[in-house]
Amino acid sequence: xKKLTTTLINLVQLLNDGVFHSGSDLGEKLKIxxxxxxxxxxxxxEAGIAIESQQSKGYCLKQKLLLxxxxxxxKYFAEDNLLLGDLDIYRSVDSTNDVLKTKLIxxxxxxxxxxxxxxxxxxxxxxxQWVSPFGANIYLSLxxxxxxxxxxxxxxxxxxxxxxxxxLVNYGIKTGxxxxxxxxxxxxxxxxxxxxxxxxxxxxxxxxxxxxxxLNVNLITTKxxxxxxxxxxxxxxxxxxxxxIISCLxxxxxxxxxxxxxxxLSHFKIEWxxxxxxxxxxxxxxxxxxxxxxIAQGINDHGHLLLKQSDGRLTAHSSGDASIKKx
Length: 327
Ligand code: BTN
What we know:
The protein is α+β, with helices and mostly antiparallel strands and 327 residues long. The chain contains nine helices and 15 strands. The strands form three sheets. Strands 1-4-5-6-10-9-8-7 form an eight-stranded mixed beta sheet. It is globular, with a radius of gyration of 21 Å. The chain starts with a strand and ends with a strand. The chain binds biotin. Biotin (BTN) binds at residues 95-97, 119, 122-125, 128, 130, 139-141, 184, 194-196, 212-214.
């Protein structure tokens, strides 16, 4: 687990003008030695960032890069009544979800956030891997203390998906976003974001819930993702400051988790219908070794997927992987 330092953030900021900077110039500005500059540059190179280095001219970033920055994230918040607790930013972790699992919490009313520039063992749903290259995307986990009955948890996982959609709409992706039950965020059928919720039982009446969100932002090409995928940069063009998108996400999540705690899933049902990718579509729900074919009919009050089977019966599915049948 490596923390992201202010020196590295400032170094990248200095290099972001696209011109060469000498080691001594950078060292002077950052108040560190030339040797220390070289070490920081090596950190970036080892993380896969393209940096041109010429003995006579110094260093130059080949592509724009803005690192995560807690000050910027807080500056962009739309509201100041956000229930934000700790905001920890790491340069590299195995998984931001796992980091939060060991975190000791002082105030359980607040949401505690963990972000990383890179995950070396990013986890997806159903034991899959989540591709998490350095500096490209958002890898965010949020620790929430949940006091409702655990049976309502599937509802929470759905509203997190709706929160991400609303945050992205506010950010500027006005059309094309949909949610595939339980919580895949798609843009024109391609995966843009995913959610992994993990539960840690507590001795009291509350449960620690870790909400992990992976959102592709500036990634344009990779051979590592084995399904149709997209990113904010592919959709909107240009380079995107992740700090701004994270502020949109946290603001929306804070609002929606509070609404869910007060009103439950029923408050979000209409919105779910608006973005439901599977509505009236012939699908298979795979649960372990079992496959359930049918027509998707939205969700019930617990957030379970409703499936109309060939004999007309309606069954509810609390978990599984839904895929559209090939015609
Ligand atoms: C999915 O399979 O769709 C869920 C992907 C969840 C990825 C995020 S990235 C931040 C957090 N840390 C992880 O290891 N996974 C989640």
